[in-house]
Amino acid sequence: MPDVIQDHSTAEYRCPGETYSISRAVHLGRLASFHPDCRHCPRRDDTVGLSARQIRQLAEVNSQAESPPLFYAEGIGKVAIDDLSPNLAQRIAVEFAWQIISARPKTTCGAGVSPAHAAGMAAPQKHGVNDGQVVSLATRDRSSQATTVVASDGRLAAAAIIAAIVEGLRWTGCETIDIGAASAPCTARAIEHLTADGGIFVGNAHGAPHTVGLKFWGYGEPLSQGGMLDGIAASLQTQSSEMPIDRPARTFGPLQRFAATDLYLNDFRPAYHALRPLHFVLDCELGPVVAYLKELIRNVACRVTPGKSGSKLGEQVLAAQAHFGMRIGDDGENCHVVDERGQSVAAERLLALIAGSLAKSVMQGEELRQQTFLRMRENRATIAADTAGRLWYANSHAPLPDALRTLTHLLVLLSRDDQAFSAVLDQERPAA
Questions:
Q1: Per-residue CA distances from 294 to 265, 281, 282, 404 (Å)
Q2: Measuring CA to CA, which residue among 400, 326, 417, 405 is closest to residue 365?
Q3: Is-contact 302 308, C-beta < 8 A?
Q4: In percent, how much of the chain has pLDDT > 70?
Q5: What is the pLDDT of residues 243-252, one digit of tens each?
Q6: Interatomic CA distance for residues 140 and 251, integer angstroms
């Protein structure tokens, strides 16, 4: 009743994602200090005891703190690192694993197993670390449990998130293979190589500071809006953050580690010889991609000037008198290129140039990654450009968008003679 003084001493307060209760004094203290979890607390309006000024400030903060949608068309993206708590990350991993397990074909050789494995042929021995011990990835039993690959962009801020994801996957009984710091294209190659049932990459596709995003693969395909990705989102919306995590398996899944860098870079190494001493500006905040390029150009005369984030790429190229410039984003899947004059080069024109040099035709992709992947596989296309500006390649591997592949082709093209990039663009006959 309004006329009766309420007794808050017996009320239970619990912050979102936490399993223990707190006193009302702690609740008010966290509200007054603008604790991040308070924005999602169902009792954030219980402010009796705070000053009028504090209540007014909290109202202003809550009105401006509308969280963006967790899921977007290509996964989870542009979420503040503080908003993606380890608890939520673990729940996402559990639901993803449950979707993978539920959709897993009931075969004796396991989902995603290559024809060579299904026929009992010997596979190359690839070694990982299983809880500290060296094991053979080729001899593991794939019929009894689903296998997932996890990777991150190497940022320390995402360490707690990747650890929670690994814990969630293992909680469901999934065999988890951690490839460490990588790019999204490297993760896709590892998933294909290891014939894994699924994969999760923790990165920052949108490139906004202090944000994080997740990309998913299921049975060799990048997951986009529709299908399994929508199933994960729908399940998370119907669950309470305090609900105990369902464990569909009694056995805790094993953890292995696999070094995927050499596997990925071996596709590029044949191109990095006898290259012209090109100088280019590279604007890339994804540490693994920078490390990949440093390894590839170690024995050639190419020179890289690190780009400055926030500055115009064209101006940086002119200032450095470089042959061209490239900005790599979207977890290593997309890039933007400018020529030696600082002029932007359209993705369609760049890909047509590359395809023309390889005598390949360009296929028009779709807006979503999964749609482009399926269309390329159906048409057995080797090169494509989607409407989001990603350049796709598929030769001896499944289709994937890869900015490092674009950079490699560009270095080879410009090493044919001493012409400037703009002249090569004007003279090269593009592919159909």
A1: 11, 13, 11, 12
A2: 400
A3: no
A4: 82
A5: 445 555 567 8
A6: 16
Least confident of 64-68, 107-111, 259-263, 416-420: 107-111
Distinct helix (H) and strand (E) counts, the chain: 14, 19
DSSP state of 185: H
The kind and range of the H/E element at 265 are: helix 261-265
101: which 2 tokens?
Answer: 């397990």
- Asked whether the predicted pLDDT for residue 93 surpasses 60, the reply is yes
Q: In 3-state terms, what secondary structure has residue 415?
A: coil
CATH 3.40.120 is right for the domain spanning 267-427: yes
Write the pLDDT tens digit of every residue in 162-195.
999 999 999 999 999 999 999 999 999 999 999 9
Tell whether the model's pLDDT for residue 271 goes beyond 80: yes
Distance CA 32, CA 46 (A): 12
Rg (CA), the chain: 25
Q: Cβ distance 255 to 145 under 8 Å?
A: no
The class (CATH top level) of 71-107+127-261 is alpha beta
Alpha-carbon gap, residue 137 to 166, rounded angstroms: 18
What is the rounded distance in angstroms from the CA atom of residue 189 to the CA atom of residue 273?
A: 23
Ranges of CATH 3.40.120.10 domains, the chain: 71-107+127-261
* Predicted pLDDT of residue 254: 94
The 3 state secondary structure assigned to 43-101 is CCCCCECECHHHHHHHHHHHHHCCCCCCEECCEEEEEECCCCCHHHHHHHHHHHHHHHH
Q: Coil, strand, or helix at residue 411?
A: helix
> 197 near 146, Cβ under 8 Å?
yes
Phi, psi of 307 (to 5 degrees): -80, 160
Q: Which residues 6+ apart lie within 8 Å of 141 measured at CB?
A: none
DSSP string, 288-356: HHHHHHHHHTTTS--EEEE--TTS-HHHHHHHHT-SEEEEEEGGGTEEEEE-TTS-EE-HHHHHHHHHH
Q: Which of 16-20, 29-33, 305-309, 414-418 has the lowest mean pLDDT?
A: 16-20
pLDDT, position 242: 46
Residue 394 structure tokens: 């598929």
Report residue 166 as tokens: 């690994």
